[in-house]
Amino acid sequence: MAFQTIKSSVKDTELIERRRKQIIQSAIVLFQEKGFHRTTTREIAKESGFSIGTLYEYVRTKEDVLFLVYEAINDRVYNHLETAIELKEPSLENVYMAIDSYYRLIDDMEEEVVILYQEVKSLAPHLREVILDKERQMVKFLKDALLLSMPEGFDKQRAELLANNIFVQGQMWGFRRWILRKQFTLENYIKYQIDFLKCSLNND
Amino acid sequence: MAFQTIKSSVKDTELIERRRKQIIQSAIVLFQEKGFHRTTTREIAKESGFSIGTLYEYVRTKEDVLFLVYEAINDRVYNHLETAIELKEPSLENVYMAIDSYYRLIDDMEEEVVILYQEVKSLAPHLREVILDKERQMVKFLKDALLLSMPEGFDKQRAELLANNIFVQGQMWGFRRWILRKQFTLENYIKYQIDFLKCSLNND
Amino acid sequence: MAFQTIKSSVKDTELIERRRKQIIQSAIVLFQEKGFHRTTTREIAKESGFSIGTLYEYVRTKEDVLFLVYEAINDRVYNHLETAIELKEPSLENVYMAIDSYYRLIDDMEEEVVILYQEVKSLAPHLREVILDKERQMVKFLKDALLLSMPEGFDKQRAELLANNIFVQGQMWGFRRWILRKQFTLENYIKYQIDFLKCSLNND
Amino acid sequence: MAFQTIKSSVKDTELIERRRKQIIQSAIVLFQEKGFHRTTTREIAKESGFSIGTLYEYVRTKEDVLFLVYEAINDRVYNHLETAIELKEPSLENVYMAIDSYYRLIDDMEEEVVILYQEVKSLAPHLREVILDKERQMVKFLKDALLLSMPEGFDKQRAELLANNIFVQGQMWGFRRWILRKQFTLENYIKYQIDFLKCSLNND
DNA sequence: CATGAATGAGGGTTCATTCAT
DNA sequence: TATGAATGAACCCTCATTCAT
Description:
- The structure is a homotetramer.
- By secondary structure, chain A is mainly alpha-helical.
- Chain A has 2 domains: 8-60, Arc Repressor Mutant, subunit A (Orthogonal Bundle); 63-202, Tetracycline Repressor, domain 2 (Orthogonal Bundle).
- Chain A is 75% helix and 0% strand.
- Chain A is built from 10 helices and no strands.
- Chain A has helices at residues 13-38, 41-48, 52-55, 62-85, 92-108, 110-116, 125-149, 156-175, 177-180, 186-202.
- In chain A, helix 1 (13-38) crosses helix 4 and helix 7 crosses helix 8 (156-175).
- The mean pLDDT of chain A is 91.
- Chains in contact: A-B, C-D.
- The interface between A and B is large, with 41 and 40 residues.
- Chain A binds a DNA duplex through helix 3.
């Protein structure tokens, strides 16, 4: 995955993968608790169970950790969405199910999602682009699924915007839970959002 | 406004207000450019046109500046929304117009909106609550406007969620403009979103 | 002096000068004791009588301190040589006296001289050039003095090399004192070197 | 050679010698490029073609590498000088030839010579003494050769200083080449310096 | 003998905040 | 009120050295 993007001075790739998993896991907890800037590299190392020196064997800068975290979160959502959508027979019913499972994933990843909106700006342009690309891909999945499930001639822009809305409303469940959880259950939230989508598709 | 919330060692309230306006203005520019953490208090002071010592006469911590900025941005949106919605005769048509003007404001404030998602977490709970309260208020405005414009018995939860969607979709135009502007004009975007709202309201 | 070369965030130039003098003085002692790399910025600050933060108000990097030190040492030698040589009537006798006083200065500056051979390479090219230029100037002083005191037609290359020899033999008294002091007094050393020069000038 | 001075955890002395040669060679290149302190032990190991662990089998500290390098350079000059001077019949002509070949060696070793003035101070007193002793020896060679070639009763101090001068002027060709090479060829330089020596010897 | 992952003390630098003027 | 020099805790990162395999 990130082996081309983030350099390590350790050679054993299997070890790199294992250590980086530890790093990502600790960083997610810490970033969610205190944000990227308030988290120190020493804390990440300590939480990961090794020394600061070891951390820097697997990562070159603190920013690298941020990228690793973004990538891990993004990848997880991406893979989930991809498998949920790649159906033999595209149909609206299947799109709804995919969205449903997407929302449930977000619910499961609530800590992680909060991080997504923190510091993409801190990333070097090159790394930032990797992250945003994947995000664009995800929106595209949703859009394509909609287009394939609707009669030909369905407005592409409309599909694009709906895909964006779905995507963001999913994340909204994560990063605005302080307001939404007071009034909605996950089931509730999903049902409503899918209902809204339905009529947005049917109506002209 | 913030006179109860943020302490100053200067007495002249008129002066406080003037200086703080300068601070907010500079900070918005800087935070948007480099984010809250990468901006130094010295830079804020310099951009504001006075010395670091003076900055600390009108603000007690760097976090105070963040709060001031949040508050200023939030207030502007809030006031805009309030005056747009407070109609004598609530009607759907008027709600649509309010949303339209809300989206246009966001478009106008694109720099500011990006800041909103940065560092609410950095605020002391006490200050954070002030900000979030105002946000809740705004959603409530939208929700109430919807309820008043719809026949009695309209599902309150549905209204709540629609209000949230509208609110977030507005902000989405600000913080996801890197993806949206490629495919939509502001007019376009507004039209589509209001269309979606319409059928979400009409349909059962 | 260094005001164009080394930036400071303090405005009061008189203060800059005073503080930098302290820095230079402390750094000379420390560099001579432990060398540039083994000396920490914290030590320099402490020895200077202020905090590490203050040090960095007057200097931007550790390398800047090195430059300041080089410049101070070089300048002192330079000024000494300049005033010793700028005579109304150039004459060999006067050149000998200048050399004599140059050697005595080096003797006085033994600690400083050792530093000169340490880390010019560590300096940014731009700063290094400033230092080397001054050194070239000094050799030129000696060379010109020789040429003016000798009959016209004296071999210029010979003068150049003699100037270099004198210059380096002066420094040799500083940086090889561990071997020379065992066998020579300063008086001795000067007398011999000037004697050598004399016959190198007279003979063909 | 260094087997008594620098400890190794490897027994096979032939191997030690081979490995150390590699170490010295790499270190010379690196020290000359970036100086002792800016060169890392990892770099030395890598350039030597083996792992960091292996490096530490043949050397106990980084300082040991410095010593090894000093010793290698010094030894080479020393041996050269020794064989050049140890004549059956001491004569001035032979001294001049020895000096000539010494200067040519320095010219050949320009990279190495630069290193000599870097960090003798970093060495433990015990190691430093080994290096300086050899240097003293070299000066003594020159001095003795002079004394043997001159009529009895030649001033010993004078010989001592001349020997020092020759020695340092040789090194000067190495470490001040940035200024000398602009104006002298090696031939030139040697000729002048030997000329100077001649008249310093002849004249009273 | 060789390897290279692990360690952690320590270094250079930044920056929010204070306080005497 | 306004200034800006002074402070020092804290941060990111490096690198000599060790040791289990």
